[in-house]
Amino acid sequence: MSRALSCPTLAGVIASAFALSTALPIASTAVASPVAKTSVSRAVSGHGSRVARGETPCSAGQGYAVKAWIIAYGPGGTDGHAFMMLRNIGETQRHFHSITLMAGQALTFGTWGNREDGQGIYLNLEGHFFHKSGAYGNNVALSKNMCLGDFQWLRDNLEYYNEWSTTRNCSTFAAAIWNQLIAPGRVVDPDDGVWDGVDTPTRLAHSIDNYDELVDVDNLPNPPDSKVKRFRDPGNVDQVSPSSLEGSGGSSG
User: Fold this and answer.
1) Which of 3, 9, 121, 215 is the most exposed place for a label (fewest CB within 10 A)?
2) Which DSSP helix (H) or strand (E) runs through 156?
């Protein structure tokens, strides 16, 4: 069962679109300084992937530790939601900001703008709404096996992506994380080449759908309420308030 989800609230977006349209293309591989604590827009624009910049944290022969998915549900217009999922595919437990993943366990994470606990990154909220209300049906997704170096980079740099706005929303976040983790070749674009400064889950879903390596994601982890978290910074990851769990997940912004 699918539900109409609305990630960004785009009132007033067109007025700011021109200023944002000067951002560099998402697929740029220009050499950039190491990622600093800054806006998601910088993480997307002009950074390409770490591999394209010569940053390869995975040593030769290092086995895969975690599998990552970028998942987008975009029924049209500004409706939809986009997020990431991680699954531990190794035999050793992995720790991701207060959540322990035993072998085979998974979590979701994405940005939200309308939850009681503030704007930014939430852990496991998508899984909660998937099982509560059947959200995120008919999604499109890509996946990638990650070595331990990839996983550690993501965990250690997550705080740099902890923001949400109408123009830099859940689709911007998911694309930024994905594009930092992959080698050149499967870069995704949350505005699908329109370059009007408006990122949407529908545009991201169309960008993902251009690839032949699409994967089916018909289930998400089902976390207890105690495992749904609000990520503020590495030392401040809290269980969400009950009001953040209310509703159907029908809007993240």
Assistant:
1) 215
2) helix 148-157
